[in-house]
Amino acid sequence: MPRATNRQRESSKGPRRQAAALACRLRRRRVEVLLVTSSGGGHWVVPKGHVEPGERPWASAQREALEEAGLVGRAKRSPVGRYRYTKHGLAREVDVFLLDVHEVLDRWRERRLRRRKWVELESAVERVREPGLKALLHASGKRLRARARRRSA
Fold it and tell me: What is the reported pTM?
């Protein structure tokens, strides 16, 4: 009997869980979010990755923000939203966590693979290609503006 491939095993378990970090700040009374380029450099995304076995999703979001964007911070324990996408024919489900940024590092693990950029929320919605993430950013606008204003007061 032939053995199942990793892809077959993964697809039979349902969508692969991922976690993403949504870092935002208030600059000149406008909400900005941090985007990074995908690992291939082809498009803009938020830092995200697989939730490792035994790892809490919010902790995964914190780790991915550090590895992919050089952000040191604390993720909220409850996600602000969730979206799905497909990569290499496999379903992914991403929980998105707000990240309170404490420090932005000049040197970080994936600095040679990715670019990072703080952009206004409206620009982030335009730059992001993934429909689910685009919708989540758009829907989160009012909430992010209120949160950023509270933090700057």
Answer: 0.85
